[in-house]
Design a protein that fits this description.
With 121 residues, this protein is an all-beta fold. The protein is 0% helix and 52% strand. It is built from no helices and 11 strands. The strands form 2 sheets. Strands 2, 4, 5, 6, 9, 10 and 11 form a 7-stranded mixed beta sheet that branches. A 4-stranded antiparallel beta sheet has the order 1-3-8-7, with no helix packed on it. β4 and β5 form a beta hairpin. The chain is globular, with a radius of gyration of 13 Å. The N and C termini lie far apart (40 Å).
Length: 121
């Protein structure tokens, strides 16, 4: 079992930056790929970024490419999402997930409760 808890969300002005954290519990954290997804009200869950179990490979959604950096620290059982040049359309609840490598929610087995990110204009 892996439990995930996101933090770091909040209100930020357009053009600002934010770093989200996802703290994981579980002895097998380092064996899972990790992903970040977001969901705005009335919209479906959207892929943001993913990182391999070792941290050696990352992918980003086109919508955030160039503005997003995903990283992980397996020693701390934590994955991060650094977001820069934030836009109002980035407003959503952000979720971290653990599972297989992929860009679909179905690729991930464990999910956090989410953290709200609101970007004002």
């Amino acid at each position: 079992q892996v439990q995930l808890v996101e933090s770091g969300g909040g209100l930020v002005q357009a053009g600002g930056s934010l770093r989200l954290s996802c703290a994981a519990s579980g002895r097998t954290f380092s064996s899972y790929a990790m992903g970040w997804f977001r969901q705005a009200p009335g919209k479906e869950r959207e892929f943001v970024a993913a990182i391999s179990a070792s941290g050696g490979t990352t992918v980003n959604a086109i919508s955030v490419k160039g503005r997003c950096t995903i990283s992980r620290d397996n020693a701390k059982n934590t994955v991060y999402l650094q977001m820069n040049s934030l836009k109002p359309e980035d407003t959503a609840v952000y979720y971290c997930a653990a599972g297989s490598w992929g860009d679909s929610p179905h690729d991930y087995q464990y999910w956090g409760q989410g953290t709200q990110v609101t970007v004002s204009s």
